[in-house]
Structures are given as structure tokens and as C-alpha cells.
Amino acid sequence: MGYDTGWFKSTRSAAASDACVEVRITDLSVAVRDSKVPEAGHITVSHAAWRAFLNRLR
């Protein structure tokens, strides 16, 4: 099996708050879902798209 972080929240998320996203990084892609309703599904993007998104946030 390849690289897989499992689902995680940002360390900057408030501990008592569920109002954040969860991220899962694998060899092939990055998945993002709403932590309040994880059963609603997720979006998947390429590593390049994820890096571009993070760079834009910075």
C-alpha cells in the first residue's frame, strides 16, 4: 500500500469546533470533506492543484 495520511483536521482548527474541513493525502491525490457531515462525500484534487490552492491561501 502507498502513502495515506488518513483523515485529519488542521492544527489551527478550534478544538471545540466542528466547523472545519478534513484532508486526506494519498500517493495519487488529496481529498477534502466537511467535518460536520463527512458522510456527504468529498472532493478529490491532484497534488499540484492542492499545492496551488495552499500557495494561493498564503
Keywords summarizing the entry:
58 residues; alpha+beta; 4 strands; globular; single chain
What is the strand and helix layout of this fold?
Layout: E1 8-9, E2 21-25, E3 30-34, E4 43-45, H1 47-57
Antiparallel strand pairs: 1-2, 2-3, 3-4
Give a quick precis of the structure:
19% of the residues lie in helices and 26% in strands.
Describe this structure in words.
The protein is an alpha+beta fold. It has a domain at 21-57. Helix content is 19%, strand content 26%. The chain contains 1 helix and 4 strands; from the N terminus they run ββββα. The chain has one helix spanning 47-57, and strands at residues 8-9, 21-25, 30-34, 43-45. It has a 4-stranded antiparallel beta sheet. A hairpin with an 8-residue loop joins strand 3 and strand 4. The relative contact order is 0.19.
Q: How would you name the oligomeric state of the polypeptide chains in this document?
A: single chain
Ends apart, CA distance between termini: 32 Å
- Backbone structural class: alpha+beta
Spell out the helices and strands N to C. Answer: EEEEH
Rg for CA atoms: 12 Å
Major sheet characteristics: 4 strands, antiparallel
Strand content: 25-35%
| Apparent shape | globular
Q: How confident is the prediction overall: mean pLDDT?
A: 88
Strand order across the largest sheet: 1-2-3-4
Number of helices: 1
